Amino acid sequence: MDKNSDFFRIEHNNVEPEKGRILIAEPFLQGRYFKRSIVLLAEYSDEGAVGFVLNKPIHLTLSEVLVDFPVFEAEVYVGGPVDTNRIYFIHTLSHLIPQSLHIKDNLYWGGDFEALRKLIEQKRIHTSQIRFFAGYSGWDAGQLSHELKENSWMVSSLDIPTIMNVEKPNVWEESLRQLGGKYRIWSNYPENPSLN
Q1: Strand positions, DSSP E, the chain
Q2: Which of 125, 138, 118 lies closest to 74 in space, CA to CA?
Q3: CA pair distance 173, 177, nearest whole angstrom
Q4: Which of 30, 63, 126, 187 is most buried (most C-beta within 10 Å)?
Q5: Residues β-bridged to residue 121
Q6: Chain-centre distance of CA 73, in angstroms?
Q7: How far, in Å, are 17, 50, 55, 80 from residue 134 at the CA level?
Q8: Would you state the pLDDT for residue 185?
Q9: pLDDT tens digits for 155-186?
Q10: How many helices (H) and strands (E) does the chain have?
C-alpha cells in the first residue's frame, strides 16, 4: 500500500466535538455553505448540534439586512443552510443581553433581541463584541458523528478573540497551519487542483 494514500485522511487526535469547539472542513468538502469552512459548535448533545460558519461573509451589514433597525455596521455572515431568513448572533455580552446561551468562557449565543436593539440604539456595544449570521448549521442526532467518520471534518479549538475577529478572512488556512504536520500542507492546497 502506498504510504501517501492516506495523506488526505484526517488523523483523529481524540478531540471530540463539544460546545465551543470548531469543525474544520477537509479540503475537498464541497458545497456553498461548507467548502473550506470553520464552524463554531454553539450546541452539541446526543440529540444533535447547532453551529455557525465563521468565515463566509455575505458582504452586507446588519443595517442592510434588517429593515427598521438602528444603524450598526457589523458584517453579516452565512451561518449555515438552516433558517437562512433569520438572524442569529454570538457575543461576549451576557451581562447586557438576557437569555443568552453559554457556549464557553465568555462566549454566548442568542438572547433577548429587543435588549440588543436598545444597546445598539444607545451605542453601548461595539462590533468587536458581537457577530451576526444569516441562518445556522444543524445536525440531527448521529449525523455529525457520521460526517466525522467520513472524514468531512476535523475537530479543533479557537480562542475567543479569534472567533470574534471578523477581520480574519483566512481563518480556515490558519486553523490548519496551527495543527501542523500534513495539515500545514493542506492549508496551501488549491481550491481547484485542475487549474494548477
Answers
A1: 22-25, 38-45, 48-53, 57-61, 75-78, 82-91, 101-104, 107-109, 130-140, 153-156
A2: 125
A3: 6
A4: 187
A5: none
A6: 20
A7: 23, 13, 12, 7
A8: 65
A9: 999 999 999 986 666 787 787 777 776 676 66
A10: 6, 10
